[in-house]
Task: inverse folding
């Protein structure tokens, strides 16, 4: 997260951004400027991409689409867990300030390409998240059931025969930041002779 002294902001190092970025679950009501999201998307597209397919597409949701997605999710949750649970989800999801969906190209005849394209989209999302974090904007990457529902694709105007959802990215300013820890590097590194 960018940090400031009394008057001047200091640019965080790449290490600070990578280590400091956290998934944000609770946002303030302020909506970040669209220009910063647009810049983050441009930077996302510099992700590594083996066969230069640029498989990512970014779908920025406006109020009408957000409302329809919130309704759809409330309906799905209500069907599974009852009306009170559906309404609780509607209430919570209605407070999310920014919505962006990332989809990746499907390649029904080339499973390897499809996997590489999906991986490239994940790299793109991390680029985007790190940039936004560096300017003080938090992101939550979600992959709940609604993101795979046919009606969700319809709302996005995306053909699920040709593209798949990689994530719904909620973004905004963090109301609070959860702590996380990671295993020591000795636990995850094997050095072979
Ligand atoms: C592919 C992917 C899917 C995720 N889906 C969800 C989700 O559906 N709901 C959620 O609360 N968090 C989701 N997350 C966020 C993770 O829970 C989060 O990254 C993890 O708890 C570690 O926290 P950190 O990002 O602050 O390090 C997802 C993250 C990734 C990479």
Result:
């Amino acid at each position: 997260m960018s940090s400031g002294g009394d008057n001047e902001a200091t640019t965080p190092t790449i290490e600070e951004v990578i280590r400091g970025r956290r998934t944000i679950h609770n946002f303030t009501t302020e909506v970040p400027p669209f220009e910063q999201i647009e810049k983050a998307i441009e930077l996302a597209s510099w992700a590594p991409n083996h066969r230069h397919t640029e498989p990512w597409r970014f779908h920025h949701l406006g109020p009408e689409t957000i409302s329809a997605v919130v309704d759809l999710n409330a309906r799905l949750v209500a069907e599974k867990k009852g009306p009170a649970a559906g309404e609780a989800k509607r209430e919570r999801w209605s407070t999310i300030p920014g919505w962006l969906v990332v989809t990746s190209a499907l390649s029904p005849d080339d499973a390897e390409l499809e996997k590489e394209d999906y991986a490239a989209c994940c790299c793109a999302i991390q680029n985007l998240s790190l940039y936004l974090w560096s300017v003080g904007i938090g992101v939550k990457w979600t992959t709940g059931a609604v993101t795979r529902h046919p009606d969700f694709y319809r709302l996005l105007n995306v053909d699920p025969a040709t593209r798949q959802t990689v994530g719904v990215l909620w973004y905004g300013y963090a109301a609070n930041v959860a702590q996380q820890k990671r295993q020591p590097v000795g636990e995850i590194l094997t050095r072979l002779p």
